[in-house]
Design goal:
This protein is 52% helix and 10% strand. It has 322 residues and is α+β, with helices and mostly antiparallel strands. It folds into three domains: 32 residues, no CATH class; 169 residues, no CATH class; 103 residues, GMP Synthetase, Chain A, domain 3, CATH 3.30.300. The protein has a five-stranded mixed beta sheet. A hairpin with a 4-residue loop joins strand 1 and strand 2.
């Protein structure tokens, strides 16, 4: 046996070349590597399908590569199982692909450990963020970005695979047609992607529930229905603070009226104008209330003080349009 690097003649049991010092064991290991036709796909298509399916395509990708290994090495493994639990097996796959490509003269390189770590982190962080309830829009967007980034560590692997296959497959064509499984998986993934995006950004869609209701109900009916919903959501009387108690909500011909009782308050500074200025900002900043005002349904607030004074405040659409 001769050294691969300097052509020096070696003993059969030699571990290192006594001339150039290179490892002979590595050369023997390389010869023992079985030629494997991995799963070929253009890099651009891998990116597209991974994004469109929110990473679901990655499972298919892993399963196809493990299936290639199972057939070539005649191993009793479950390709689908290894694809689903890829956090335990992706490092082995990445390393095996690099060894196969290097055997055929692949000049580029990558760190199987680093790429496996990045891929696992993306999976775990994305899965963790998806399970957080009542997330803000920012966290939803962050999860979405992580979910569609899972392909990034796979690009280096696929590049090595395509090189490897080009050396061992006659008339190798990486631009093959979509398989039936890919088409079905892509359709399912695109539907899933659409539902996720819709759910993520639904908070940005204006709530037109009141507008749609107005097409069904008259103003009086809408007032009555809204009052029913308000009263069903609370127990009356309801003590709001130390001095204010909401005792009733009533439907007026073109207004919703809230009835309050004030106890133990100094009325020397109270007036209808004072109360309207005090309530103004909170009334006009409430989206639901403003929707009602825009439909010419007024908001009325009646106050009765335990000492006998009475106050009344009304808000119309023009009050919140200034």
């Amino acid at each position: 046996m001769n050294c691969k690097h300097c052509d020096n003649k070696l003993a059969n049991d030699a571990k290192f070349c006594n001339k150039c010092g290179k490892s002979v064991e590595a050369e023997k290991l390389e010869k023992d590597i079985v030629d494997i036709e991995y799963f070929s796909i253009p890099l651009g298509r891998l990116v597209l399908l991974s994004i469109l399916t929110l990473g679901i395509y990655d499972i298919f990708w892993f399963a196809k590569n493990w299936e290639a290994i199972r057939k070539a090495e005649q191993r009793k493994i479950s390709p689908v199982g290894r694809a689903i639990f890829t956090v335990f097996y992706c490092h082995e796959l990445f390393k095996k692909v690099l060894q196969s490509a290097k055997k055929h003269g692949y000049s580029d390189s990558y760190s199987p450990g680093m790429l496996a770590t990045v891929y696992i982190i993306l999976l775990l962080v994305g899965n963790g963020l998806s399970r957080i309830e009542n997330t803000t829009l920012g966290l939803d967007v962050l999860w979405l970005l992580i979910a569609i980034s899972s392909f990034i560590p796979l690009l280096s692997i696929q590049k090595a695979i395509n090189f490897n296959n080009s050396k061992i497959v006659p008339n190798f064509d990486r631009n093959r047609k979509f398989s039936r499984g890919e088409i079905i998986l892509t359709v399912i993934g695109v539907i899933w992607f659409g539902l996720v995006v819709l759910g993520t950004f639904s908070s940005l869609i204006p709530d037109n529930s009141y507008n749609s209701s107005s097409n069904t109900y008259t103003t009086a009916e809408l007032v009555t229905e809204t009052v029913k919903e308000v009263k069903a959501s609370m127990t009356l009387p309801s003590k709001l603070d130390e001095v204010t108690t909401l005792v009733d909500v009533t439907a007026e011909p073109s207004a919703i009226r809230y009835h309050y009782v004030l106890s133990g308050v100094d009325t020397s500074k109270l007036s209808n104008t004072y109360l309207k200025n005090y309530l103004g900002s909170s009334i006009c900043e409430n989206a639901d209330t403003k929707n009602l005002l825009n439909q010419n349904i007024n908001m009325e607030y009646s106050y009765v003080v335990d000492s006998g004074e009475r106050y009344f405040v009304s808000f119309t659409k023009t009050d919140c349009s200034q």
